[in-house]
Structure to design on (364 residues):
């Protein structure tokens, strides 16, 4: 019976969930991002922090949107947990600073006690970064509890065994080619009418979508290989970032990886044009085969000429296939990475896209 309902209800339910999960407004997005950035930069916002960094020596890994749950049918993090733990072990061994960009815990569908009980291994792994003072925790809309609940500080202490500050955003500051560079990070729900503290969305997820999802065991996050055009929210985030000088914006929230303001599909077309200009016929032929496969599915070449490289999105740690994606900043480069299961179910790190920070096209 469950399989029958899965087959008949999955598509309309995911569509309904999407309808109630995102309704961004450009003016609200612009206003919220600008206000938070200004407050962090001035030191006036207790929920923000500025960190100077050295591009040659400092390393950062940014993950978001784990949505840790109760290991039931609604827990979309369960399949990716092994990849997440393997990734954290790798980054701890290599002295990366871990920035957790929000929606780490699914507290719209679950109580804090339930999430704590079923995610001890991941909390212990994160606590190792905190112990070395290599950890920043940012709240999102699904774990807004950490910012506004009276017992949040005490609750965090019970899972990390030490005090931990909660932030709404962080700004990394450095210089590239004698130009200042800010890397501004926040969860990205700001300006979304359905997510930015909206009580009805929380009620819908907790009381309607959650029970259906649990029974039908539906994960609305398609596999990480499903590269489509940017969501409207990502486009709005890009629009804001493109207007600001010497700045990169990195968010999560949409669960869609974006690198240099483009999705993987959009980057595929760009790489094909680059290969043709370089007369690299072998690379061009390989990319063309991938493009043809997509054209056969109805995809069309996007119009993205003139995009600056100002916007990045981590993707998420709860894809339906168990893959997780994130952003690395290390050795003067920025990378979109994926941790995926290999043939023997081993966790493997893959670099999907990479660029030197000095080569990014920015609004200078």
């Amino acid at each position: 019976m469950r399989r029958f309902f899965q087959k008949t209800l999955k598509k309309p339910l995911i569509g309904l969930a999407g309808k109630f999960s995102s309704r961004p407004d450009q003016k609200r997005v612009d206003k919220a991002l600008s206000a938070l950035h200004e407050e962090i930069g001035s030191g006036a916002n207790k929920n923000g922090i500025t960190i100077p960094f050295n591009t040659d020596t400092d390393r950062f890994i940014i993950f978001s949107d784990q949505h840790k749950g109760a290991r039931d049918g609604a827990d979309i993090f369960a399949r990716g947990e092994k990849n997440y733990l393997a990734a954290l072990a790798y980054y701890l061994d290599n002295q990366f600073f871990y920035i957790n960009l929000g929606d780490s815990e699914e507290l719209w569908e679950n109580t804090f006690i339930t999430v704590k009980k079923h995610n001890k291994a991941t909390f212990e792994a994160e606590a190792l970064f905190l112990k070395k003072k290599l950890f920043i925790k940012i709240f999102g809309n699904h774990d807004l509890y950490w910012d506004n609940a009276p017992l949040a500080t005490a609750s965090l202490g019970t899972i990390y065994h030490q005090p931990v500050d909660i932030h709404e955003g962080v700004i990394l500051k450095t210089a590239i080619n004698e130009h200042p560079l800010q890397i501004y990070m926040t969860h990205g729900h700001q300006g979304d009418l359905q997510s930015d503290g909206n009580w009805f969305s929380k009620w819908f997820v907790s009381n309607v979508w959650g029970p259906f999802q649990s029974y039908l065991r539906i994960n609305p996050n398609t596999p990480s290989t499903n590269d489509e055009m940017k969501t409207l929210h990502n486009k709005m985030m890009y629009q804001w970032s493109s207007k600001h000088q010497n700045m990169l914006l990195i968010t999560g929230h949409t669960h869609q990886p974006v690198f240099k303001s483009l999705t993987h599909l959009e980057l595929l077309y760009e790489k094909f044009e680059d290969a043709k200009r370089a007369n690299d016929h072998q690379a061009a032929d390989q990319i063309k085969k991938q493009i043809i496969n997509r054209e056969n599915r109805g995809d069309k070449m996007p119009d993205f000429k003139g995009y600056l490289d100002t916007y990045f999105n981590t993707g998420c740690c709860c894809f339906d296939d168990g893959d997780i994606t994130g952003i690395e900043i290390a050795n003067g480069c920025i990378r979109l990475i994926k941790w995926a299961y290999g043939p023997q179910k081993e966790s493997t790190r893959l670099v999907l896209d990479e660029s030197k920070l000095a080569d990014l096209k920015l609004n200078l």
About this structure: The first strand starts at residue 48 and ends at 52. Residues 2-21 form the longest helix (20 residues). The radius of gyration is 20 Å. Confidence is low (pLDDT under 50) at residues 213-217, 221-226.
